[in-house]
Amino acid sequence: MTAPWWRDAVIYQIYIRSFGDGNGDGLGDIAGIRSRLTYLRDLGVDAIWVTPWYPSPMADGGYDVSDYRDIDYRFGTLAEAEELIAEVHAQDMRIIVDLVPNHTSDQHPWFQQALAAGPDSPERARYLFRHGASSGGPPNNWRSVFGGPAWTRVADGQWYLHLFDAHQPDLDWEHPDVRAEFESILRFWLDRGVDGFRIDVAHGLVKHPDLPDIETDHEDMMEPPDRTDHPHWDRQEVHEIYRGWRKIADSYGPDRVFVAEAWVAKPERLACYVRPDELHTAFNFDFLRCSWHADALRAVVDCTTEALDAVGAPPTWVLSNHDITRHVTRYGRASTRGGGSQHEPHGPVDVGLGRRRARAALLLMLALPGSAYLYQGEELGLEEVEDLPPEVLQDPTWERSGHTARGRDGCRVPLPWSGFRPPFGFGPVDTRPWLPQPQRWVSLTAELQKREPDSMLDLYHRALRLRRDHPALGEGSWSWLPSAPGVLLLRRSPGLVCIVNVSNAPTTLPRHERLLLSSEPLQDSVLPADSAAWLEVPGVG
Ligand code: GLC
Known about the structure:
Layout: E1 10-14, H1 30-34, H2 37-43, E2 47-50, H3 78-90, E3 94-99, H4 109-117, E4 129-130, E5 151-153, E6 159-161, H5 176-191, E7 196-199, H6 238-250, E8 257-260, H7 267-273, E9 281-282, H8 285-289, H9 294-309, E10 316-318, H10 327-330, H11 351-367, E11 371-375, H12 396-400, H13 446-451, H14 456-469, E12 478-480, E13 487-492, E14 496-501, E15 507-508, E16 514-518, E17 526-527, E18 531-536
Parallel strand pairs: 1-2, 1-11, 2-3, 3-7, 7-8, 8-9, 10-11
Antiparallel strand pairs: 4-6, 5-6, 12-13, 13-14, 14-18, 15-17, 16-18
Helix pairs in contact: 5-6, 7-9, 11-14
Alpha-D-glucopyranose is lined by residues 60, 63, 100, 164, 200-201, 261, 322-323.
């Protein structure tokens, strides 16, 4: 029996607002995805994950859903979504959609009914409405991930919980209606042929029944504390929900997959989400948070694979997504550690160095066992746009932090496809993208890079083709070989070695029969600093 596709797939994340705009309203849409499917197939990815496309007031870019069974009019129609699913399959790819179960939009009919029904009504019981503290303040001291208190008071005096924006009220997962509703939503999309779901904030659904205060005053979702009794992150009770969901997915066959967005303290905690009767996979954010340092990278790979092997789940590797500073920029800073863009200190960026390291990191990521996620635009080497004018910022973080954290818009700028001036082929010629694209991206368009033999896009093409064709890559055995300080030497069987020079001095390639691919041009078997190569080596094992 062959292993299910998702155990070693390369999955491309489409942040729908910024991928391709078919109708010229400045926002990406389904038409924009459909017209670029050939690009994705030629790139060599196995699947796409599309961020939320449901009707939404867009208070958080679509992560505030008002109807889970339809498509936002700005993105298209349900019929177009069904056509996209069929076309993706016809191109021999798969499609994963984004499920947002922790909260709805405040415009969702349930929340509107809850507001209308008044305090202590059954309608309010689907959310977390509470009376305020005797001091007159909110029921507890929880903070929103986007800044400010996690509670908002409604006109009749009750408060409701929102771990994110005030337009994203948290559901009460103890309520049977909530559980039944999401099981039905899963079936709705599985019936339409989607291959899986990315689960938003999978570690946040269940809250401590007493909603007790939290001892620390700042709760960063991306850096959760290492404890098992946190009042709202990574609680044991979430696992029962996922066991129920797994049964539903399995009833549609072995090829439907879940991937959890769970920010947890360590790989052992992540492994709990992917036990055999729970979710299939989970993003491994430790790799993305890891600094550009050989020992640190080696330790993350070891801890992750060990913890996930113990439960039989494949690891996943990811370097960027729509919530964090693009890795070209992270790797171009003096301090390369970190994932969260919102509260990170900003240092000067050497974008050239960042791109060079990003090229090397790609070869490392794609040589590791398991599956990998690419975030749209990383194949073009896009950097974080850190100079967006404040008046265009849309991430709720900007307002909720009192203009102290710019938020995540810098990694969400619409892609440059072609041409010499904005919108760079993102939409029809006179389109004004919802976030302005920097003129400097004129040299990074997909059209231009397709013709440049050593462009970032070319490296992605070649690496993805080799990963698909070479028997040693993807799932399978692997081991570290002894190496010089600052150098990683990863052996895959049969006959492949990935060498990554994370140090700032050149190193010598090990004995090999053939160079398969390198992130920089090589001379005389010397691998320069911040670069990587895949080598064919003699012998098996
Ligand atoms: C997840 C999403 C993020 C969103 C948040 C609230 O972390 O990736 O974009 O803002 O959940 O839904």
